[in-house]
Design a protein that fits this description.
The structure is a homodimer of 143-residue chains.
Chain A lengths: L12 E3 H5 L10 E7 L5 E7 L1 H10 L3 E4 L4 E4 L8 E8 L6 E7 L14 E4 L2 E4 L7 H4 L4
Parallel strand pairs in A: 2-7
Antiparallel strand pairs in A: 2-3, 4-5, 6-7, 8-9
C-alpha cells in the first residue's frame, strides 16, 4: 500500500489503517523509529516500535517504544520524567522506518544528555561532544 | 568500549579502532545509519551499513551503505548520481546506531524526493507531503 504513494503528488492520501497493514515490521515485529526535535531538527535518538507501541503513541501523543532489552512497552520518560510529546509521525518510502517529530522534555539520552549521538569521529579518535544536562543517577533515582 | 563514554565529559576521547570493535552490528552484521542534511537538519533517509561500508565511507567521505535487497555494497548515488558527501559521523550512546551528517546532492529518495519521509499521518489519513524533485525514471535512466 505504501508503495502506491511513490507516484502520488503532494496532498494525495490513503487511509491510515490500510497503510498500517503494509508497514514492514521485522521478524521480531519491530520497526525503527527516529525521534527528531520538531522545531530545531536535532536528531535525538533511534529506538524501536511494535504495532502496539505505535498505536499507543498515536492515541496518546506520548511516545511509546518497545524496549528490546526489557521486552516490554517503554513509555518514554516513565521512570526518568523525560517525556516525548508526539507532534507528527512520518513513514518512509519503503514503509520500513518511522520518523517521529517530537517535543522532548529535558534529556532524550539515558546518559542525561539531550541526544544520544554524542560520540563524534574526528580523525582516528571518537570525541564526546556534549555533557549531560542532568546526572543520570538523579534521573533514575539512584542517588 | 563505547559505554565508557557515558561518563566522559565534553572533549574526552577514545581511539576509533577500539570503538569500532565494540559497535553492535546485528546478527546480519549490519547497523542502522540515519542520514541528516548537515546544514538544514533535514532527516533524509535511514539505511544500513556493514563494517566494510562504514570503513569505505570514512575513507572516501562518500557515503556507502549495504543494500539488504541487493546484498551488496551500495555506493549512494552510483546509479542515480545523487551522492551523499560525509561531513561528520556520530555514534549513539549504545553503539548500535549511526548518525551521518551529510551533504546530499539532489534527491536522497529513490522516488526522486529530497527525503524518504514524505508520508505524514494526519488523523485517519496518510498524506504525501512533497513532490519529486526529479522523475525517478530519469534518475535511473529508464526514460
Amino acid at each position: 500500500m505504501i508503495e502506491q504513494t511513490e507516484r502520488f503528488s503532494e496532498g494525495q492520501s490513503l487511509p491510515w489503517q490500510d497503510v498500517l497493514n503494509t508497514l514492514k515490521f521485522n521478524e521480531d515485529g519491530l520497526i525503527p523509529a527516529i525521534a527528531q526535535q520538531h522545531d530545531t531538527g536535532e536528531v535525538l535518538m533511534m529506538a524501536w516500535m511494535n504495532r502496539e507501541s505505535l498505536n499507543e503513541t498515536l492515541e496518546t501523543k506520548q511516545v511509546c517504544y518497545w524496549s528490546r532489552s526489557r521486552q516490554k512497552l517503554w513509555r518514554k520518560g516513565e521512570s526518568s520524567g523525560q517525556q516525548q510529546k508526539l507532534i507528527e509521525l512520518r513513514i518512509d518510502c519503503d514503509g520500513d522506518t518511522l520518523l517521529l517529530l517530537v517535543d522532548q522534555w529535558g534529556a532524550a539520552c539515558h546518559t542525561g544528555r539531550r541526544n544520544c549521538f554524542y560520540n563524534v569521529i574526528q580523525g582516528d579518535r571518537v570525541v564526546v561532544n556534549s555533557n549531560p544536562l542532568v546526572d543520570p543517577d538523579i534521573l533514575y533515582g539512584k542517588s
